């Protein structure tokens, strides 16, 4: 069981009224903590997305690529909502690309990896392979996210440098001696 930032992430084992299937089947349980100060808003948002405040995901003995992809998308949607902060909830809109903000998405993917890792280390279940597949898929998502956003940052920085250089060249042409004079407009 792992509890961090307003939610509980645990692994349930065995036959219970909550887990369908034979004895020994494990389920990931993601539960929004009632102690989260934004519990009410996040619970409503989860329900609008078709989830409850406690979601169980049954782990399969041999995880297929389809199961891994579907489970990863489900977990990602839930974690995105759980990791929303007050400002993100206030300005909430259904994002066309899935993520609410770059900060939220980074937190979501890192949190998913960390929580899956913690379950892998504390369990010796048959479904350990499924957890490792989920972890690998999440790491790949994080790499893709990082590559996409690092490239955009680099392009933005290059563009800013070029614009700043053009501004400095313009200033030199009209006789301005420093960046401060350009910024003040005192030329």
Automatic annotation (TrEMBL):
It comes from the Eukaryota. This is Uncharacterized protein. It comes from Trapa incisa.
């Amino acid at each position: 069981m792992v509890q961090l930032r307003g939610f509980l992430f645990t692994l349930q084992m065995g036959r219970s009224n909550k887990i369908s299937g034979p004895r020994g089947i494990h389920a990931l349980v993601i539960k929004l903590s009632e102690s989260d100060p934004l519990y009410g808003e996040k619970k409503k948002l989860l329900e609008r997305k078709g989830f409850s405040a406690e979601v169980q995901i049954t782990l399969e003995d041999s995880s297929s690529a389809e199961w891994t992809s579907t489970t990863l998308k489900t977990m990602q949607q839930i974690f995105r909502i759980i990791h929303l902060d007050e400002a993100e909830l206030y300005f909430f809109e259904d994002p066309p690309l899935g993520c609410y903000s770059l900060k939220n998405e980074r937190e979501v993917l890192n949190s998913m990896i960390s929580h899956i890792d913690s379950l892998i280390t504390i369990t010796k279940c048959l479904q350990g392979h499924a957890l490792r597949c989920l972890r690998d898929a999440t790491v790949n998502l994080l790499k893709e996210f990082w590559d996409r956003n690092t490239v955009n940052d680099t392009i933005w920085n290059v563009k800013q440098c070029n614009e700043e250089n053009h501004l400095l060249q313009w200033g030199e042409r009209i006789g301005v001696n420093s960046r401060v004079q350009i910024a003040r407009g005192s030329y």
